[in-house]
Amino acid sequence: MPKAAPHRKFPKQSYEALADFRYALRAFFAFSEQAADGAGLSPQQYQALLAIKGARERSELSIREIADRLMIRHHTAVELVDRLTNNGFVARVKDKGDARRVQVRLTAKAERVMDGLAAAHLRELKGIRPVLEELLAQFD
Asked: What's phi and psi for 134, nearest 5 deg?
């Protein structure tokens, strides 16, 4: 039977750096939640729109893909897409290759909102970049 790996003791500075890094991430997420709210979106709705807008080489995603990207259950993604549809942010379109499948696409309204949110998020990231780089350097 193999021996268990010895317990590694981490220095206090490692815990401090991890705590500071987590705090910086949470501060960014708090900013993101407030920005989404200011645009009339819940954080999860913004994440869904971002997943669709950020889909590589595509302009739409299936509900299953949205669920996977947001790490939520399929039925939760269906409800989320229903709310986004009702508020005019997305439209359901039949898959060109399989009429049984539905794809979700952003509307012009969502495109306008996402442009503003993207600009705000990029400004925020540029502002905290030095802090994040300094914290990440402590892990080398």
From this structure: -65, -45
- CA–CA distances in Å: residue 39 to residues 4, 16, 51: 52, 35, 17
What is the reported pTM? Answer: 0.86
How far is it, in rounded angstroms, from Cα 58 to Cα 25?
A: 28
Q: Please report the sign of the dihedral spanned by the C-alpha atoms of residue 123, residue 108, residue 37, residue 92.
A: negative
Q: Which of 4-8, 105-109, 111-115, 132-136 has the lowest mean pLDDT?
A: 4-8
Alpha-carbon gap, residue 18 to 139, rounded angstroms: 9
Question: What fold is seen in the domain 12-137?
Answer: Arc Repressor Mutant, subunit A (1.10.10)
Sorted by where each begins, the domain ranges of the chain are 12-137
Taking the C-alpha atoms of residue 56 and residue 13, their distance in angstroms, rounded to an integer, is 38
- Convert the pLDDT of each residue in 82-115 to its tens digit: 999 999 999 999 988 888 888 999 999 999 999 9
End-to-end C-alpha distance for the chain, whole angstroms: 33
